[in-house]
Each structure stands twice: as structure tokens, then as C-alpha cells.
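Batch job 17 of 40 flagged for manual review because the log was empty.
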Amino acid sequence: MEVQGKLKTAQEAANDPRILVFGRLLGAANRLEYLLGRSLEQEVGLSHSLFELLLLVGRAGDTGMPVRDIAQARVLTSGGATRLVQRASAQGLIERRGSMDDRRVQLIHLTPHGEQVLLRAAALHARNVERYVIDPLPVDQAEVFATAIRTLSKNAAKELPTMP
């Protein structure tokens, strides 16, 4: 991707390849978020943010996950993560348990109901990811795309400050 040094006009700035590629990435992410999130809400009754929370807690397994780790992973303030956890708890999807190592820490765990909702939502989401993200790409590009997205995500995560 060839990029010029100084931008001299608004039109040059708006058409800068760096800005265009990020705009396209963000636009695709926003449209996909809408499509996949709407499907989760309509078919499972689960918001995309709650689905992402269930995925994080599911990945943590039996050890559970502290709210501060949820905040960092979801790029939320601790207050935002607490509200998300409260919403999930009110729906019977997760439960809080005290840490055996540090009584001040509350670990978030899936309830059996939360696990069942996660399984239903994940099956639907996987089908939709295949339909909207994987199928439109030529076969040889799908794996390259997945690797590139993983690299971008890991790099951005390293650069994030610790969430308050």
C-alpha cells in the first residue's frame, strides 16, 4: 500500500489509503455487528454484549473470571463491566463466587442456564459468521484474513492502557 507523506487537501486526506482501509474495516465491523447482533437478539433473546461476556466467562472455565479482567478484555471501565455483569446475573446467566485465593475478588462463572444459552447462541453465531464473514471470501483468503485479524487484535490489546 503506497502512502504519500504530507496530505495537502481534504480530498487527499479522505482518500488516504491508511484512512480508507481503517474506515472499511470499521464499516464492515459495524455492519456485521448489526447483522449478527440482531440475529442473537431475535433468535436467542441475548444482546451481543452479553453474548461476548458469556464467551469470556466460558473460556475461563471452572476457575471463573474477575470483573477487572472482563473490563480489560471488553475495553470497559470497571463500572461498565460491573453493569454488564449485573445484567447477566439478573437474567440468571452468570453467578459471582468469592475467590479462594483472595476473598476481596469476586469471580464470575456461568450458571447452567447461562451455559445452555451460550451453546444456543454460539451455534447461531457460528452459522452467521460463516455466512457473512467466511463464505463471501475466496477460500485462499479466509485463512489469511483470520490470521490478519488475530494479529491486529493482539497488537491492539498490547497497546491498550489498563482500564480504570
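Reviewer: the log was empty due to a logging misconfiguration, but the result itself is present. The beta strands are 65-66, 94-98, 106-110. Unflagging and moving on to job 18.
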